[in-house]
């Protein structure tokens, strides 16, 4: 078994965040089902999906890799989960819902250590406040294409930052991985880190 770290995600944002902290890792996207289960809280949802993603990739990676990182991010507005929009109409509806309001971004992460069987998983919440958006701003933003593969239909690390009046909590969590909590969990599992 190699001492490799595997990111079980196709997200370029998660890849960039791990590169930002100097981790050496490989990317193997997960094929785990992302449906919400009946009665599941948002926190339970992102933790379960994070574990499922890491476990699914670990099961497929016969002997290659030791630590597997899975993650899932959702936007929560009025206790409603806003995932990735199916189309431009849905993206517009989500942005109208977020306009002038506060919402929460929940990112779950899970780290599985295949060698020891140890696991760490948690959900981190960040509060994000949007300014009021005009219909024209929403239409122009959707025309850029940026909202289409993002939970809640916006990217805080992209043009969507223009809508964010303030945040309370982890910025990297809104991008897709709560790096402060993640690095602590990696250290607990014995993963060698640059700092």
Description of the molecule:
The protein is built from 6 helices and 7 strands, in the order βαβαββαββαβαα. With 195 residues, the protein is an alpha/beta fold. It has a single domain, classed as Maf protein. Strands 1, 2, 3, 4, 5, 6 and 7 form a 7-stranded mixed sheet that branches.
- String of helices and strands: EHEHEEHEEHEHH
The CATH architecture comes to: Alpha-Beta Complex
Beta-strand proportion: 15-25%
The pLDDT mean sits at 95
Rg value: 17 Å
Count of DSSP strands: 7
Shape: elongated
Which structural class do the helices and strands define?
alpha/beta
Q: Using the coordinates shown, work out and report the CATH topology.
A: Maf protein
* Top-tier CATH class: Alpha Beta
Largest sheet: 7 strands, mixed
Number of domain modules: 1
Contiguous helical run count: 6
**C-alpha end-to-end distance:** 25 Å
Note poorly predicted spans.
Answer: none
Helix content percent band:
25-40%
Question: Would you spell out the secondary-structure blueprint of this structure?
Answer:
Layout: E1 5-7, H1 12-20, E2 26-27, H2 42-60, E3 67-77, E4 80-82, H3 88-98, E5 102-113, E6 119-130, H4 135-143, E7 164-168, H5 171-175, H6 179-188
Helix pairs in contact: 3-4
